[in-house]
Amino acid sequence: MNTARHDPHAEHHDHAEHRGHPEHTEHAESAAHAGHDVQPGHTEHAGHGGAAGHDPHAGHGGSATLGLARAEGGYQLGAVRAPGSPGEPGTLAFEITGPDGEAVTDFAEQHDKQLHLIVARSDGAHFRHVHPVLDEQGTWSLPWAWDAPGTYRVFADFIPSATGAGLTLSTTVEATGEETPQAATPRAETTTGGYDVAVHGTLTPGRGSELRFTVSRDGEPVTSLEPYLGAFGHLVALRDGDLAYLHAHPHGETPQPGDTSGPLITFEVTAPTSGRYLLFLDFQVAGTVFTAPLVLDTVG
């Protein structure tokens, strides 16, 4: 999983071709997204095909804790078991317990999956968005290996069927070794897997901001974006520093199998405070998922 380093924006290649990442099992299903290891500088489309009315944040409950709490509403993210050292192959596993203290086994689907697992090092580097598998006992798991030493924040984004309300819980995990932090710097353009991605718009703290992403290749607009996780693009935003978690999806109606769109994807994102935000845009072309890392500072 070569992770480019969080120049958050460095050519997100690895993630770029979500291919061959053991940890991306889920993407194991879609071999394309496997090994989504992206760097913090990694980074949709109002009217992606004229779809209207899709709440960009539907399903991803806007938690007051911004995803930084391990427990909320009676639900708790259990200890995350994972290999201890970078390069050591193994399994990442955890449970989510409910108000009764028992492991939850019934989850509602959101964006085509029952749980979205987001992992990023404390400096925003080595970003991954994967989908583990749930067993009958309530354990989520997938093959895993760390790319580099450091402290990683692991986010679980899910909807318990019992409540129907979205939650994002997180905890930290250590990968042993000496970490070499990499600072994120503003970057509104990046290249991943041969695709050029740019973000347009202004992030204004405290209110919804429309961010427009364009995808091109060899100077030509890409109009062959395919549905991925129920939309033509998937955006995760993390606040630089504490990695407060924001989640958005593109404007527009849910695409149907076989639909294509592009080059524009538009999201509405609300930055809770002033600061720097790491943006990770996932999009799919020809069955392969790419991740583009970008970085924006708020204005105003």
What characteristics describe this protein?
300 residues; mainly beta; Immunoglobulin-like; 2 helices; disordered N terminus
Fold and architecture overview:
By secondary structure, the protein is an all-beta fold. It has two domains: 13-57 and 183-297, Sandwich (Immunoglobulin-like); 71-175, Immunoglobulin-like, CATH 2.60.40.10. The chain has helices at residues 13-16, 26-29; strands spanning 71-72, 75-77, 90-97, 107-108, 115-121, 128-130, 133-134, 139-144, 150-160, 167-175, 189-192, 195-200, 208-217, 220-221, 234-239, 245-248, 264-270, 276-285, 288-297. The strands form four sheets. The protein has a five-stranded antiparallel beta sheet with strand order 1-2-3-8-7, with no helix packed on it. Strands 4, 5, 6, 9 and 10 form a five-stranded antiparallel beta sheet that branches.
Cα(first) to Cα(last) distance is 38 Å
Count up the domains.
2
Report the mean per-residue pLDDT as an integer.
84
Strand order of the largest sheet: 1-2-3-8-7
Question: Do you know the CATH topology of the largest domain?
Answer: Immunoglobulin-like
Number of helices: 2
Q: Approximately how much helix is present in the residues?
A: under 10%
CATH architecture of the largest domain: Sandwich
What is the CATH superfamily classification of the largest domain? Immunoglobulins
- Summarize the helix and strand pattern as letters: HHEEEEEEEEEEEEEEEEEEE
Count the beta strands. Answer: 19
